[in-house]
Amino acid sequence: MKISKLIVGICLLFVIWSLGSVALADSVAPTCTFNRLAFDISTNNQPRLSGEATDTESEISRVDWRVDGGTFSRANLSGWSADRKTATFTFESSALDRDVISHLFEVRATDAAGNTNTTYASYSVYVIGDRPELGLNINGQTAVNGDAILAAPSFEVTVIVGPTRSLNTLYYSLDGNTRQTLTGINPDNAKITFAFLSPSLSDGLHKIVYEAVDSAGLVSTLEANNLIVQSVKEVSVQGVALNYPNPFNPETGSTSIAYTLSKAGNITLTIHDLMGNQLVKQTYFANANGGRVGYNEVTWNGRTDSGDLVGNGIYIYLIIADGKPIGRGKITVLKK
Predict the structure, then answer these.
(1) How much of the chain is helix, strand and coil, in % rounded to 5?
(2) Overall pTM surpassing 0.85 (yes/no)
(3) What's the structural domain count of the chain?
(4) Is 11 a member of any domain?
């Protein structure tokens, strides 16, 4: 009897110990921080970045990194703390596109208990060459040659110079006229300058040229050509509306429908089967994506308004303004 009670007692102690172990199991993910570059700028298109991963309960097991939403790769770990709950991570980026000024790096860490942080630490880095780097937005959108723009547009130019340089002079020239200096602002970073211009333009084609000179005398230019001002009463699609990919498989992704508007307006996009049945109706408001002057890009996931996935075949989309179709195109759905 005493032996039975002893066995029961041991079992109870084991259960209590097991429950305590479960309660104390590590469920907290590690955190990561980046070591920032000088002025957040790299003149190397394969920047080497570093930072620190820290956990409160378990050892750091691994750190992975990615850039611009790509595939994660393993980072190198070193500089462990005595309890191995803190480690330094380093990695060298793959070659980055210099046509894109800003690149977003993200890291995630995993500890020995298998916890991985799902909110990734992120860090934006400007990657430039030896000369000043210029970027141009028109009314908040990246400038593209041939864009339709407002008669009173807002030109917003960004100039970035290297960590050891400063911006000396910024010029602009509109429609081939004599160049003029443009004063910019750099509220947070002496290496990054923002400058704004709001001219009044007549109907027709326009061209703007920016020229930046840094403290070493190096010069960079940026042009935006064939910008269209069309003060028409009605909204129209400039050129041809296009969609891509086409054909597309809605089981693996969406297709984008792109078009350029002569002016801002409320736009309705409808998608129909070849029998003329309306499957989708989407509305986009003036001055928002889908209804703004210039370039617009909207998506379709291959589903009807009721949520049903459409079958293989050809579908017609209509771009409508004020009840009148102003653009149309065909989409081919091809599921495998």
Answers:
(1) 5, 50, 45
(2) no
(3) 3
(4) no
